[in-house]
Amino acid sequence: MIIHNARLRGRDGLHRITLDGERIAAIDAQHALPPIAEGDLNAAGNLVVPPFVEPHIHLDATLTAGEPAWNMSGTLFEGIERWAERKALVTHEDTKTRAKKTIDMLVDHGIQHVRTHVDVTDPTLAALKAMLEVREETRHLIDLQIVAFPQEGIESYANGRALMEQAVELGADVVGGIPHFENTRDQGVSSIKFLMDLAERSGCLVDVHCDETDDPQSRFLEVLAEEARVRGMGARVTASHTVAMGSYDNAYCSKLFRLLKMSGISFISCPTESIHLQGRFDTYPKRRGLTRVAEIDRAGMNVCFGQDSIVDPWYPLGNGNILRILEAGLHICHMLGYEDLKRSLDLITDNSARALNLGEGYGLEVGRPANLLILSAPDDYEMVRSQGHALVSVRHGKVLMRRTPAQIERA
Ligand SMILES: [Zn+2]
Question: Do residues 60 and 130 make contact, with C-beta atoms less than 8 angstroms apart?
Fold first, then answer.
């Protein structure tokens, strides 16, 4: 298959991308447009990019909002309570059906790489077992990383440590954590040491729900970063949320940034989720409840955006469209400056791929997988401004999804 008339980020002019089976065989400058052969594609001067990435979602919880009750306070903590009620009703088939329905929504929006957190604070590990099957059964659609996520704590939940170890033995790819939710600060610290040991031993990646609270005293990020630094594991470690950083004072944050930079860890922010769940204990002024996305980026560290939830006890909306998260995130994080807009797609492509450690399994380079998107606009700025879409998604050298833009008729 050949994709003609492609505009590529960071390169001038138009290009022709030749796919050979499941690999990219060539990328050449294109000066004239030949007739398009059957089976080839015309990007028509629009951007061609590697697939969008969903770096942070909870596929075992999606499409459950209101079952049995809605989260009325809008807080993270009521979300965890409502989820504990729904969790009692979870079955193997229920988890698989909802996850697959959600994966279809992600695929419809050009996503081909997904990291999902799966709740392992359940003595039967039912959701994990279901998601391990989903990972195999959806390989033609997405590459799925599964995080062993202790929603109700590692130290504060009965047999929490053993459940994490079992989850890794069963095949989880990533070790998770939730130190700010542990009953005490000491337990939060020991949970991080435990999960880093487990990751080091097993070779798993690490992605911790870290300091997802407006409490400026929640300072587990420094513990995670120092563990990553000392063990030389920074490239394999991600801190998700870190929203307490939005409440840290600047003196502490400036000291913290030195450590964060040395550690080499990545950051994932879920801007729509955080603006919804955080700031709930404030009257006015009311905090935005996000991590310092722009500052992390300016400091040369790796940060990206995720959706977190789609119609679950924490967040009632969502449709799988990561471009909606990008647009909202740029607003919420004060990143509508032209320099930020010009490279905004980094936040849902290359930066996310780095956080997920996709390495040579990602990117528009000769020899890499023949996975790519044709977008509806010629550059990052225009994609965000026009609220564009992925028009075609190609995976393993074949068209996976095609979108026909809406037609408008003027009177
Ligand atoms: Zn999450």
Answer: yes
Q: Domain check: are 25 and 170 in the same one?
A: no
Q: Answer yes or no: do 44 and 65 share one domain.
A: no
Same-domain check for residues 42 and 185: no
Q: Establish if 410 belongs to a structural domain.
A: no
Query: Measured in angstroms, how far is the CA atom of residue 117 from the centroid of ligand 1?
Result: 7
Residue 96 lies in a domain: yes
Section 327-354 average pLDDT:
98
Cβ–Cβ < 8 Å for 5, 43: yes
pLDDT-derived band at 77, boundaries 50, 70, 90: confident
What is the per-residue pLDDT for 33?
79
- 293 domain-assigned: yes
Q: Which of 346, 361, 376 is the C-terminal boundary of a domain?
A: 361
Residue 165 and residue 180: Cα distance in Å, rounded?
20
* C-alpha to C-alpha distance for 103 and 333, rounded to whole angstroms: 27
Q: How far is the CA of 84 from the centre of ligand 1 (A)?
A: 15
Q: How far is the CA of 261 from the centre of ligand 1 (A)?
A: 23
Clarify whether 327 is annotated catalytic: no
What mean pLDDT value characterizes the chain? 97
Of residues 54, 155, 182, 212, which has the active-site annotation? 212
Q: pLDDT digit string (tens) for 290-320?
A: 999 999 999 999 999 999 999 999 999 999 9
3-class DSSP state for residue 8? coil
- Are 168 and 308 in a shared domain? yes
215 plus 339 within the same structural domain: yes
Task: Give the pLDDT band (50/70/90) at residue 25.
Answer: very high
Residue 132 CA to residue 58 CA, distance in Å, equals 14
- Residue 409: which residues within 8 A CB-CB, separation 6 or more? none
pLDDT-derived band of residue 87, with 50, 70 and 90 as boundaries? confident
In the predicted model, what is the mean pLDDT of residues 342-348? 98
Note whether 374 and 350 are same-domain residues: no
Please give the distance, rounded to the nearest whole angstrom, from the Cα atom of residue 308 to the centre of ligand 1: 5
Q: What is the pTM of this model?
A: 0.97
- Asked if residues 127 and 119 have their Cβ atoms less than 8 Å apart, the reply is yes
Burial group, residue 18, by CB count within 10 angstroms (0-12, 13-18, 19+)? middle
Q: Are residues 180 and 258 in the same domain?
A: yes
The answer to whether residues 66 and 28 belong to one domain is no
Domain range spanning residue 20? 2-50+363-402
In a domain, 284, yes or no: yes
